[in-house]
């Protein structure tokens, strides 16, 4: 980090995986609904909430979320967006209405947005149709590529439009190939991949290989790709994913909340793999918490300390922050440099030496330490507060009242 008169400056952090609407259900999935609650039972709760959203409420919730991200030090967000249609599956009069709600939320708050419309076609590896609750997510390939074409016309210095394949279970092989062939050459490609062991086991049963192995063998996985929740990997997948040039998006707090498992982080670092973080379901909107618990998960598994270090630095904080900075442009498509300024007067940084700041920020709890945030040269957070926080929060409260009473 670089010392400046008011504190220390560091590059803005990219949030590589977001489902903005899920900010509205944070804390609402923590009551038992089944003796063996899991990701799959949580998903039903999530679907029930997803069915209540319209463009207005999505804009309000996303605006609140993006303001929170900026205050926490995220300056770019990759939005993995699948609430495309009306709840019954019929398109809105403007088929891009829900996407435009997210674009407007990003522009209103000042965060850079990599919008990743999701291709979602089937309900499982066996090709079964989407369930009633999934209908609003669905697209055929032609309509999906038209949506991307339309949205890319709105690209500017703060918006990139890429592609998200929801998962191997939701996109048949032929559709995946057709979609990738139809994308612009510079489009980033993100995919959910191996989050849950039942998903891994079903992929082996029906496609003859583990999900990451199957993808590496059947697609040209390279630097354009970001694999989200590549949680369950064997040694060969760790090696080959790392050497592919793709980025692994690790969503530590969501993966912990859903009981997914531990990403083999140290092994992946040893292979030189690129990686970043995402807040995903937004039960936490803090890059510091994502990084801290990424390290702590490795400590708990290995029963020793200071796992994420590198040849460049023995500091865990420096290594973690350098890792998310290194992958940001590749995964998001943005090359602009944004700035986060840590406050010299923040209590958690009291008496900090320059060499200690990264570790103090990451490992000194959750007291706010950010003074200001600049995106594309524009200050969007001043003295720790988003410049439009009050108006954004008012719209959010109104939207939540409607969503939770529906």
Describe the overall structure.
The protein is of the alpha/beta class. The protein has a single domain, classed as Metal-dependent hydrolases (TIM Barrel), CATH 3.20.20.140. It has 14 helices and 15 strands. Strands 3, 4, 5, 6, 7, 8, 9, 10 and 11 form a nine-stranded parallel sheet that branches. A six-stranded antiparallel sheet has the order 1-2-12-13-14-15, with helices on one face. Strand 14 and strand 15 form a beta hairpin. Helix 2 runs parallel beside helix 3 and helix 12 crosses helix 13.
Helical content band: 40-55%
Gyration radius, to the nearest Å? 20 Å
- Determine the N-to-C terminus distance: 47 Å
In CATH terms, what is the fold-level topology?
A: TIM Barrel
Inertia-based shape: globular
Which percent band covers the strand fraction? 15-25%
Can you write the helix and strand succession as a string? EEEHHEHEHEEHEHHEHEHHEHHEHEEEH
List how many beta strands DSSP finds: 15
Structural class: alpha/beta
**Are there runs of 5+ residues with pLDDT below 50, and where?**
none
Largest sheet, described in full? Answer: 9 strands, parallel
Average pLDDT metric: 96
Number of separate domains:
1
Any idea of the CATH class? Answer: Alpha Beta
Note the total helix count.
14
CATH 2nd-level architecture: Alpha-Beta Barrel
* CATH superfamily placement: Metal-dependent hydrolases
Topology:
Blueprint lengths: L1 E3 L2 E5 L1 E6 L20 H12 L4 H18 L1 E8 L15 H13 L2 E8 L21 H12 L6 E3 L1 E3 L7 H10 L6 E4 L4 H11 L3 H8 L6 E4 L6 H10 L2 E4 L1 H6 L7 H6 L3 E4 L9 H16 L13 H17 L6 E5 L13 H7 L6 E6 L2 E5 L2 E2 L2 H17 L1
Parallel strand pairs: 3-4, 4-5, 5-6, 5-7, 7-8, 8-9, 9-10, 10-11
Antiparallel strand pairs: 1-2, 2-12, 12-13, 13-14, 14-15
């Amino acid at each position: 980090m670089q010392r400046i008169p008011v504190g220390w400056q560091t590059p803005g952090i990219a949030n590589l995986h977001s489902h903005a609407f899920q900010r509205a259900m944070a804390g609402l999935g923590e009551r038992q609904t089944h003796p063996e609650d899991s990701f799959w039972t949580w998903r039903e709760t999530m679907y029930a909430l997803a069915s209540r959203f319209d463009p207005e409420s999505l804009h309000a919730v996303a605006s609140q979320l993006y303001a929170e991200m900026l205050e926490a030090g995220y300056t770019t967000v990759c939005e993995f967006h699948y609430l495309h249609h009306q709840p019954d599956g019929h398109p809105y009069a403007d088929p891009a209405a829900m996407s435009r709600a997210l674009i407007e939320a990003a522009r209103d708050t000042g965060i850079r947005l990599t919008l990743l419309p999701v291709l979602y076609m089937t309900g499982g590896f066996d090709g079964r149709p989407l369930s009633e609750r999934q209908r609003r997510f669905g697209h055929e390939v032609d309509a999906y590529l038209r949506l991307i074409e339309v949205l890319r016309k709105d690209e500017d210095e703060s918006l990139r439009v890429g592609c998200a394949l929801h998962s191997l279970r939701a996109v048949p092989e032929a559709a995946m190939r057709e979609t990738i062939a139809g994308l612009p050459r510079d489009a980033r490609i993100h995919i959910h991949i191996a989050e849950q062991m039942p998903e891994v086991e079903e992929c082996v049963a029906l496609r003859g290989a583990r999900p990451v192995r199957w993808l590496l063998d059947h697609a040209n996985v390279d630097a354009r790709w970001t694999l989200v929740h590549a949680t369950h990997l064997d040694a060969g997948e760790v090696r080959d994913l790392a050497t592919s040039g793709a980025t692994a998006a690790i969503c530590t707090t969501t993966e912990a909340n859903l009981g997914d498992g531990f990403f083999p982080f140290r092994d992946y670092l040893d292979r030189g793999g690129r990686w970043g973080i995402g807040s995903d379901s937004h039960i936490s909107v803090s890059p510091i918490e994502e990084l801290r618990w990424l390290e702590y998960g490795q400590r708990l598994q290995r029963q020793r300390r200071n796992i994420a270090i590198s040849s460049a630095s023995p500091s865990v904080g420096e290594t973690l922050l350098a890792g998310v900075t290194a992958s940001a442009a590749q995964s998001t498509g943005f090359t602009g440099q944004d700035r986060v300024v840590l406050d010299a007067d923040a209590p958690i940084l009291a008496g900090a030496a320059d060499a200690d700041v990264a570790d103090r920020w990451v490992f000194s709890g959750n007291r706010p330490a950010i003074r200001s945030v600049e995106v594309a040269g524009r200050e969007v957070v001043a003295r720790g507060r988003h410049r439009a926080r009050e108006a954004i929060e008012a719209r959010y409260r109104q939207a939540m009242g409607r969503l939770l009473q529906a």
